[in-house]
Amino acid sequence: MRFKKPEKKKSSFSKFWVSLIVALNVMFAAAIIVTFWHTGTEPSSLVVAWFAFTTGELWMLAGIKKKKIKEGEEHSEHS
Question: If you count Cβ atoms within 10 Å of the first and of the last residue's Cβ in the chain, which end, N or C, has fewer?
Answer without folding.
Answer: N
